[in-house]
Amino acid sequence: MSRTSSSLNLIPCTATVSLLKAIKLKGEFLYAHSVSVGLMAERIGKALSLSRDSIYVLKTAGLLHDIGKIAVCNRILLKPTTLNAHEWEQVRLHPMVGSKTLKTIPALKEQAEIILYHHIGVNGNSYPANISYKHIPFESKIIKICDIFTALTSERPYKATYPRENALEICKKEVPFQSAQLAEIIYGALISSPLLTVCEAREISFDTDNDK
After folding, report:
1. What is the DSSP annotation of 176-212?
2. What is the mean pLDDT of the chain?
């Protein structure tokens, strides 16, 4: 029996569910990662006592943050060795491609802005937008930290899995927050979030009977 996210009372809209189905068809690892990031972002939003609408936007942005990778071939996405310059260029386009995709859907315009900036870093190694880390939306930082933590701690055929504590230390360096109190809440929610295996993510469905 498949599990459902309806118990979270933050059910994605029909457009989001359709895009998630496309991600699932693209590949199990990408789908598992997307679901994990979305649910982790939701958990952080609740820990921060954000409004229901804000948590909904965070969750759906997390679920769809990698929608642009549908345009990247699996040979590149699953390559076990270092990407060459051309391959890396293709991957770096995914935030822009994803953002443009979501902008065509009125219900997902906020999420489009968030995912555009989820690869902006503090060290200047950012893509694709030319903007400094301090100017990106707060929500983009939440998606970024969930993305990094999930990627580091999840199983992949091309990399080793990081222990949670090591992954958290990397996240603190990559996604800093000026407020110590805010950082404590976010990092605490992050490290306590359950991690989904590919099999577990595959069993999660998103009911659209009560679309937002």
Report:
1. --S-HHHHHHHHHHHHTSPPPPHHHHHTEE---TT--
2. 87
